[in-house]
Amino acid sequence: MSVYTRVDKGQLEAFLRNYQIGELVDFQGIVAGITNTNYFLQSSTGEFVLTLYENHSAETLDYILGLQYHLASNGVACALPVLDNNARLYSSLNKRPAAIIHRLPGLVCKNPTLENCALIGAELARFHLAGRGYTLNRGNPCGLNWCLVICDKLENYLSDSDRQLLLEELQFYQRYPMSGLPIGTLHADLFHDNVLFDGASLSGIIDFDYACNDVLIYDLCVTINDWCIETDGGIDQNRMLALMQAYQLLRPILEQEQAALPTMFRVAALRFWLSRLHDQFFPIAGELTFMKSPDEYKNLLLKHRESAI
């Protein structure tokens, strides 16, 4: 996504000797995104994405890259990591953990249609079902404890009204009982710009940085909050219905999950409002950076609150 760590041709050529993907032909930084350094990479055997992880621990990389490998090997449409000559999912480049991942064909769908929403609903269900066989576990890196820490960090940067809204939503989050809701493997960041479409077909899911184990219905709400937004910032009911119906054909949503939807929509909106506020006030220095507006998720949170009254 954004370029924080520069890689020169010589460094990359030396790195590629650890892989069986041929000779380097070309590479260029990817401008969009926030968390890692990414390059498009063309070799004599094909096209790939090179990712340098700026903040992840070895344990986290074992989880997210292992999950990608597991899902792709079990029929889920997602980018497959390339193993190096020692059968490792990642190694080191320019003092950063780095992985090479097959580049999927297609483009991001900027304005999701009913058909796009149905396709991602079905693929998310396949993701959740295939995730049952994944043995590693990772707590949600942006769960309640993270929300509380970020809220404290932002306290002196916010208006009184924003600070009050955050406190009210965090109290609401803390009071809601999560017991009884099915838990599994989540993508947790399944925005439309993390999915590629090749024409009318869904090519695959990318960017597993926030993948974790948590409440499954939360993952569905994160996805709907992005894919089904109207121009006024509210939820498009038709697109949401298309997405949820396609999901439920493969993994039926339980009664207790249906009851939790209004709460999970608010929790999901809160999480991304907080992360965007944090990126706004505490940006990571980089050569090329892309930042998303926090107001989109603040407005969505307010709409979810209104609909719950």
Write a structural description.
- With 309 residues, the chain is an alpha+beta fold.
- It has two domains: 9-103, Phosphorylase Kinase, domain 1; 108-308, Alpha-Beta Complex (Aminoglycoside 3'-phosphotransferase, Chain: A, domain 2), CATH 3.90.1200.
- 44% of the residues lie in helices and 16% in strands.
- It contains nine helices and ten strands.
- It has helices at 9-16, 58-73, 114-130, 144-154, 160-175, 216-227, 237-250, 255-281, 295-308; strands spanning 24-29, 37-43, 46-52, 91-93, 96-102, 107-108, 183-186, 195-198, 201-205, 212-215.
- The strands form three sheets. The protein has a five-stranded antiparallel β-sheet with strand order 1-2-3-5-4, with helices on one face. A three-stranded antiparallel β-sheet has the order 6-8-9, with helices on one face.
- Helix 3 (114-130) packs parallel to helix 7 (237-250) and helix 4 (144-154) packs antiparallel against helix 5 (160-175).
- The mean pLDDT is 93.
